[in-house]
Amino acid sequence: MLKPSTVSVAVFVILCVRGWCQKSEPLALRGEQSLFRGSDRYDFSYVLPAAALECFWHFAHQSGNFYFSYEVQWVTGIGKDRHITATVNSPEGLLMGSSQDVRGQINFRTKETGFFQICLSNFHNRFGSMQVFLNFGVYYDGFEEMQHQKEQEKKQLNDTLATIETSAARVQSYVFHMWRYYNFARMRQGTDYYLLLSNYNYVTWWSAAQSLVIVLSGFLQLYFLKRLFYTKTTTDTQKPRC
């Protein structure tokens, strides 16, 4: 007969295997290494269906800088309303920021550790889908200093090498922020490209329709002009009557 403690452990293992255990944060690596506190970012495009609500989850530690930016690139449908509702919620369900525009940014300081929820709502455009470019992530202040301190304790770096590493860490931070600005510019460039493509298709089809109307109107005018000068041939038996 199994003991109660053995039964509890077995039930816990079965539930975890089936995926019912909710993980609060990623596991640390083996050894003395702590949880990763570097920059973690994503950028991609997503097609949001009509009147749909889609959510994404991104993990962040406490005391991090969470950023989220988006831009609507193209819209299909009848109304073609390019406005979208974007919200970011904390792991506890609190609203951290919202935006209801064609493009927007949400930045805040994380006060808790967990998975932050990013939701996009296409309720403004109920008859067409839209493509949205997303750029979100989290970075931590002091990450470079922590890494520098660990390396200094292990390798006993001299002052010159420590200065070089500090400068390199500062340059790496500047490069990261430049990447963010570049990504936002790429969103604008993608939007302009899709707008130019849409205008090109509109001008092409409208020009073709106008050309067809001009040709058809010329043909009808010629037809009616010929009808005005149409005369019947007369014979001895068929003569025009007064």
Automatic annotation (TrEMBL):
Domain named GOLD: residues: 53-138
Protein's membrane topology: Single-pass type I membrane protein
Domain of life: Eukaryota
Subcellular location: Endoplasmic reticulum membrane; Membrane
Transmembrane regions listed in the UniProt entry: 205-225
Keywords recorded for this protein, A-Z: Endoplasmic reticulum, Membrane, Signal, Transmembrane, Transmembrane helix
GO cellular component terms listed in the entry, alphabetical order: endoplasmic reticulum membrane
PROSITE patterns: GOLD
Signal peptide (residue range): 1-21
Family: Belongs to the EMP24/GP25L family.
Protein name, per record: Transmembrane emp24 domain-containing protein 6
Lineage: Eukaryota, Metazoa, Chordata, Craniata, Vertebrata
